[in-house]
Amino acid sequence: MFDSEICASATKLKDLCIKHKVKLAIAESCTGGLLSGAITDISGSSAVFDRGFVTYSNESKIEILGVSEGFLEQFGAVSAPVAEEMAKGALNNSNADVAISVTGIAGPSGGSPEKPVGLVYFGIATSNGLLLHYSCTFSGNRQAIRLASVKEALKFVSSIDFRDASRNS
Predict the structure, then answer these.
(1) How far apart are CA 10 and CA 74, in angstroms?
(2) What is the residue-averaged pLDDT of the chain?
(3) Got the DSSP string for 62-88?
(4) Please, which residues bridge with residue 133 across strands?
(5) pLDDT tens by residue, 37-93
(6) Is 145 helix (H, G, I), strand (E, B) or coil?
(7) How many angstroms separate the CA atoms of 122 and 84, rounded?
(8) Separation CA 27–CA 8 (nearest Å)
(9) 3-class SS shares of the chain: helix, strand, coil, % to 5
(10) Which of 104, 164, 114 is closest to 135 using CA atoms?
């Protein structure tokens, strides 16, 4: 279903999680479940994938993940603070040790000069207190932006130090 690069990155992430006894949770907006799908497309992912949240609307971000309504009003759904809040919410509402979030503008509409189509923020939260965000701007059509976001998310979460991230450490 996914290209070889996504499959290889998802397999690498699964292997890292198994090695460090880490469970994952995912909060997605613009990718609409594709990131969770890429991970669960890999055999053996049930050993590491706890759950995924597709929180496309602002209301779902507030209700399901506990994202601050004030953050959404002040910064917008596509922002570093909201990406971090989404990751923290996924972590807090799961049995995971590491959570990653994705929020962005996949287009073709919805962009602005400040936040163009293709702008995507990623957040990571871990049970040992690590909280990170990262952003990229991708080009292409909606499908290309969403798939590029999945690839980048897999690379980003695989780049963190998984040592001591497990709740069971």
Answers:
(1) 34
(2) 96
(3) HHHH---HHHHHHH-SSSHHHHHHHHH
(4) 123
(5) 999 999 999 999 999 999 999 999 999 999 999 999 999 999 999 999 999 999 999
(6) helix
(7) 8
(8) 21
(9) 40, 20, 40
(10) 104
| Nearest-angstrom CA–CA distance, 66 and 64 | 6
Reported in sequence order, the residue ranges of 55-108 that DSSP labels E, i.e. its strands, are 98-104
Q: How far is CA 153 from the centre of its chain?
A: 6
Q: Which amino acid is at 77?
A: A
**pTM of the predicted model over 0.90:** yes
- Residue 64: partners with Cβ closer than 8 Å, 6 or more residues away: 53, 55, 89, 93
Separation between Cα atoms, residue 17 and residue 21, nearest integer Å: 6
Closest by Cα among 84, 165, 169 to 129? 165
Beta strand pairing call for 49-54 and 119-126: unpaired
Residue with tokens 């890429």: 38
Of the candidates 9, 11, 55, 16, which has an alpha carbon nearest to the alpha carbon of residue 32?
Answer: 55
List the one residue out of 153, 164, 147 whose CA is nearest residue 102: 153
pLDDT of residue 168 exceeding 90? no
